[in-house]
Design brief:
Blueprint (H helix, E strand, L loop, with lengths): L1 E10 L3 H12 L4 E5 L6 H5 L1 H18 L16 H24 L6 E3 L2 E5 L2 E4 L3 E10 L3 E3 L12 E2 L1 H4 L8 E5 L3 H12 L3 E5 L11 H12 L4 E2 L3 E8 L2 E8 L2 E7 L1 E4 L3 E3 L33 E3 L10 H17 L12 E4 L4 E6 L10 E7 L4 H5 L6 E7 L5 E8 L2 H13 L4 H5 L9 H15 L2
Parallel strand pairs: 1-2, 1-6, 2-3, 6-17, 8-15, 9-10, 9-15, 10-11
Antiparallel strand pairs: 4-5, 5-6, 7-16, 12-13, 13-14, 18-19, 19-22, 20-21, 21-22
Length: 462
């Protein structure tokens, strides 16, 4: 058994863990980075980058099939070679992962320990059966894993999560997507546009994280034009039949039994905390069995341990995980003098078509009686109509008394870009009037944003 002494131990070498290591190391601390699984971030290996590669292929196929309204006629059918699609996805995915591996290989080898860590007490870790680490402060950055409900486990390899999709050598014929959240809709639409017969089901009325009912209604209509989306639906039972899955489905329209090649689960993620031996520490747990911690400092109450990245179940986004790593490391370095961090403006983007975004506060977080809502319907918006991308709605929210911009939700074209403009405006504390003083070029999709802001401004007039 080897004994290793450090000032700060970091469990997990993903986005948050790598960021924490860099900050702590730069401060002159003795740091150790512990990882038992494969190196490479969730984003690069099984998340944002491979999913965007699949989406890019799907967009190419969709565009090729929809040129006729422009007067451009493509002779013959569009053929999707699933094997070629997946070969490119995996090749480029491996390239992105390679960049991450290069970064980790650049860390001091003496600071890296391979193996799975478990707590022996608040400041001691056991790594597999070969190393005992003593550290006065510890950062947990172990990420999260997709949830697989027990009823699906009998399906074997016929039930998949997003990690598995990117290991396919070819595309299947039929897929049931359970969960119309960000991952489910992005992958579901991409597979559909690549020729896979896709059905999406969800137990509630939730869709892509949209809380504004009018925006959600527009998004649902757009997705249902491409593939079946059943909300308030239950998967009653699943049975494996050879290389197929038989599914009993209950929807508001009735009962049915359908067959698929795979069931793709997208029903949430669970923090990777269960194998860490947290019961050996003195930390307290809440009703969800999560450690009680400060969302501002990331310190777990009463112990020199910090939660950073997806494992703390706050904001499962790469830029937030990177910020978490920095915040946790800065506070671990200065412990016990920890400092609440100023977070960036909330922002999320769903890379469907049309795209979905939110910036600042969501509709459900606001008091309807204290806000005004400005809106634009993109069906008639100039540049959107030119490109035949004229679907969707943007709704902006402003404080009724001060005119300050509070947030927005949108489904529509170029939402990923408008999200940034609005997140910056929110973080700067701008009013609707100040936002309208900014330049808007012509003709651009952002003119739709101006329309929504003008609508809000008209309601703010005394």
């Amino acid at each position: 058994m080897r004994d290793y002494v450090a000032d700060i131990a970091i469990i997990g070498a993903g986005t948050a863990g790598m960021g924490a290591y860099r900050v702590a190391k730069a401060s002159g601390q003795r740091v150790v980075l512990i990882e038992g699984g494969p190196y490479g971030t969730t984003c690069a290996r099984v998340g944002c980058m491979p999913s965007k590669l699949l989406i890019a292929a799907a967009e190419a196929a969709h565009h090729a099939r929809h040129t006729t309204p422009f007067g451009v006629h493509v002779d013959g059918a569009v053929r999707v070679d699933g094997a070629q699609v997946m070969a490119r996805v995996k090749s480029e995915r491996d390239r992105f992962v390679g960049f991450v591996l290069e970064s980790i290989e650049g860390f001091d080898p003496a600071d890296r320990i391979r193996g799975y860590a478990r707590f022996l007490d608040d400041t001691t870790l056991q790594v597999d059966d070969h190393t005992r680490v003593s550290a006065s402060r510890i950062i947990i950055a172990t990420g999260s894993s997709p949830v697989v409900p027990d009823m699906y486990r009998s399906l074997g390899d016929r039930v998949v999560i997003n990690d598995d999709v990117f290991e396919w050598d070819n595309l299947p014929e039929r897929v049931l997507v359970v969960g119309p959240g960000v991952i489910g809709l992005e992958l579901g639409q991409a597979l559909s546009r690549l020729g896979v017969e896709v059905t999406v089901v969800g137990r509630s009325e939730g869709l892509a994280g949209i809380s504004d009912p009018l925006v959600r209604q527009q998004a649902l209509a757009a997705f249902r034009d491409e593939f079946p989306v059943h909300l308030r639906a239950d998967v009653v039972a699943v049975r494996r039949k050879g290389q197929e899955v038989e599914v009993d489905l209950s929807t508001p329209q009735g009962e049915s039994t359908l067959r698929f090649d795979y069931v793709l689960l997208s029903v949430g993620r669970s923090p990777n905390l269960h194998e860490l031996g947290l019961e050996h520490t003195s930390m307290r747990f809440d009703e969800r069995n999560m450690p009680v911690f400060s969302r501002q400092t990331l310190q777990i109450e009463g112990v020199p341990i910090f939660l950073a990245g997806d494992v703390n179940a706050q904001w499962p986004l790469l830029h937030e995980a990177a910020d978490d790593g920095r915040i946790a490391a800065e506070n671990a370095v200065s412990y016990p003098a920890v400092t609440p961090a100023r977070r960036r403006a909330p922002m999320s983007v769903v890379f469907t078509d049309p795209q979905v975004m939110s910036a600042g506060q969501r509709y459900a977080q606001l008091d309807e009686n204290s806000i005004v809502v400005g809106a634009v319907d993109f069906s008639g918006q100039g540049r959107s109509r030119v490109m035949l991308k004229n679907r969707g709605m943007l709704r902006v929210y402003a404080d009724k008394s001060s005119g300050r911009f509070l947030g927005a939700e949108m489904v529509g074209p170029a939402a990923e870009h408008i999200a940034h403009l609005l997140a910056w405006s929110y973080q700067q504390g701008l009013t609707i009037a100040q936002m309208l003083d900014m330049p808007f070029y012509h003709p651009v999709i952002e003119e739709g944003l101006r329309t929504a802001l003008r609508d809000a401004a008209a309601q703010l007039q005394p």
